[in-house]
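TICKET: design request
STATUS: open
ATTACHED STRUCTURE:
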């Protein structure tokens, strides 16, 4: 059996937040300087992936909370839900309102979308890591 503690899972959540902030800042700068402009197709794909992850999360949530390590996984699940809801809201805003390519507000919203989307991916990875470690450490 592997020995892990909840602190390593919290560090994973911190790294997920840090990666999301970096991705958001880079995307906002790239959008504002028009180095990379995201198209509505990306917004639709991000929206679809967020809805898909929301469905998967809702379907697998009962199995994540069966074991005794559920308290360690709470932060990762909360981050995933924040990322999913944030991605859905920002992608709908970007689809509904047409921002100019070098608009400051548009760059901020695109940066938020990139941050929330990155938060989905990284927090789901942390949640999967948490669930796999709990399988080794805890009894159902």
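STATUS: resolved
RESOLUTION: sequence designed for all positions
ATTACHED SEQUENCE:
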């Amino acid at each position: 059996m592997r020995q892990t503690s909840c602190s390593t899972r919290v560090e994973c959540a911190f790294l997920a937040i840090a990666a999301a902030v970096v991705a958001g800042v880079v995307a906002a700068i790239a959008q504002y300087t028009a180095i990379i402009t995201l198209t509505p197709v990306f917004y639709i794909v991000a929206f679809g992936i967020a809805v898909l992850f929301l469905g998967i999360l809702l379907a697998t949530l009962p199995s994540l909370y069966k074991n005794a390590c559920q308290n360690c996984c709470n932060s990762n699940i909360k981050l995933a839900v924040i990322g999913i809801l944030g991605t859905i809201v920002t992608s709908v805003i970007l689809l509904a309102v047409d921002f100019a390519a070098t608009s400051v507000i548009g760059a901020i919203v695109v940066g938020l979308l990139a941050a929330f989307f990155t938060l989905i991916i990284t927090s789901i990875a942390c949640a999967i890591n948490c669930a796999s470690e709990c399988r080794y450490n805890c009894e159902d």
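CLOSING REMARK: The mean pLDDT is 82. The helical segments are 6-32, 40-64, 70-96, 104-137.
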